[in-house]
């Protein structure tokens, strides 16, 4: 191998060389002084933010990243400026960055504080994450759309269920009016009627709460969740649909299960989808066989497993995997998105979703989720 002459090495190792190299890097790189003022910005920074490189020199970095004020910067870059040769992995932080024209975009920012020629310098690199966030937003919108469409299937049975307490409230109010017109007024009877009205009102608002919880559109909310109560809520939501279809839903929930960590709305969406699929699969079976059995139990020390078992037409061997692909549907009105979205959701929760045929008849869908609370997850990040 040919050796590189010492003078050639010197010429490629100086400040100019570093500048040349930084100019070629396809991500935004800046150096900052101790006060967070920009000492150097590479051309990619100028392109990304719509400034001329020179126009940035001496300006505070919060011009580009408004939340990177000095105190925040000091916090994130860490206290000490590392001596030369001290190489440690840099954590990335999510921020909103602002272009010269005022538009904002999502960025990941890494900060590295080090000593260079006895100066304390912070190296900052800014990665434009617009595409990733857009993709994430589209995925969330799609999940929301399928959730709303799934709820659409339940609309008429839910309207019917809501009508029951409303009708009961009306007839109770009419009865109370009659009692109040009587002389003497039977106060005990009126009190009882008012209690009934409160109960019916509670029933109606509980149903509305459950519907709103599922169709809600919002950001991911990670929390410690009690899977048992999530399942119960969804089962109550599909109760009237099950009655209309002549399906019995059974619940078998192991006691004292630890929480899982995740987004409640998304997990509800998965269970709702699996239950409605189980109902659809039993459309053509005799009424006595229409049973959807939901179980929740520990699978191991680390996993909790939900199983939704039906006695429907089951899955042919080729379908076992195909059904999880987007747009695969065997239903005339189907979208074919429910299972693929459900699998993505469960994957994001570091769990597993799969299907098996039952020995006697029908299929069982399993969802295995890792045990863990939100605080523990935050610590392990
Ligand atoms: P969709 O319900 O809109 O068809 P899904 O992704 O939820 O979309 O389901 C895809 C397909 O998987 C269904 O059309 C059906 O053929 C099959 N499938 C889902 N669940 C079951 C089940 N419990 N039993 C038999 N087949 C099922």
UniProtKB/TrEMBL annotation:
Gene3D superfamilies membership: 1.10.287.130, Histidine kinase-like ATPase, C-terminal domain, PAS domain
GO terms (molecular function) for this protein are: ATP binding
Q: Which domain of life is it from?
A: Bacteria
Name the UniProt record assigns to this protein = histidine kinase
The broad enzyme category this protein falls into is transferase
The chain positions of domain Histidine kinase read: 157-373
Q: Which residues form the PAS domain?
A: 14-67
EC code(s) of this entry:
2.7.13.3
Catalysis: reaction(s) = ATP + protein L-histidine = ADP + protein N-phospho-L-histidine
Q: Which SUPFAM superfamilies does UniProt cross-reference here?
A: ATPase domain of HSP90 chaperone/DNA topoisomerase II/histidine kinase (SSF55874), Homodimeric domain of signal transducing histidine kinase (SSF47384), PYP-like sensor domain (PAS domain) (SSF55785)
What's in the keyword line of the UniProt record? ATP-binding, Kinase, Nucleotide-binding, Phosphoprotein, Transferase, Two-component regulatory system
